[in-house]
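Sequence design from tokenized structure. All designs in this work follow the same two-part layout: the structure record, then the generated sequence. An example of the structure record is given first.
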């Protein structure tokens, strides 16, 4: 089992920045990749950014050049630095971990990000 706790959401003006954090605990040795997803009202949950245990990253086209995913292995924490935020980035952001041989998905509780003036 893997437990994920997110923090760092909030209200920010367009053009502003936020940093989300996701702390993992439990069977962290079995994690192969972690990422951030988001879900806006009335929309499907979508991948925002992902980082593998080997350090490879990938991003949604809509956030490339603005968002950066990183990790601190000593703290078992993954971060999402979000710059140049736009109103369309408004959503609930969920931390995800894939773990175990079957790549089971674990989810955090979600944190609200609202971009508005």
């Amino acid at each position: 089992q893997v437990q994920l706790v997110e923090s760092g959401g909030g209200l920010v003006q367009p053009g502003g920045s936020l940093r989300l954090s996701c702390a993992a605990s439990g069977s962290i040795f079995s994690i192969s990749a972690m990422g951030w997803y988001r879900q806006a009202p009335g929309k499907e949950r979508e991948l925002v950014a992902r980082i593998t245990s080997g350090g490879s990253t990938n991003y949604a086209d809509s956030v490339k050049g603005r968002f950066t995913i990183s990790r601190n292995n000593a703290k078992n924490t993954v971060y999402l630095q979000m710059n140049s935020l736009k109103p369309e980035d408004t959503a609930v952001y969920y931390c995800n971990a894939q773990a175990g041989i079957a790549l089971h998905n674990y989810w955090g509780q979600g944190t609200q990000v609202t971009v508005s003036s």
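The CA atoms of residues 66 and 83 lie 5 Å apart. We note this feature because it recurs in several other targets discussed in the main text.
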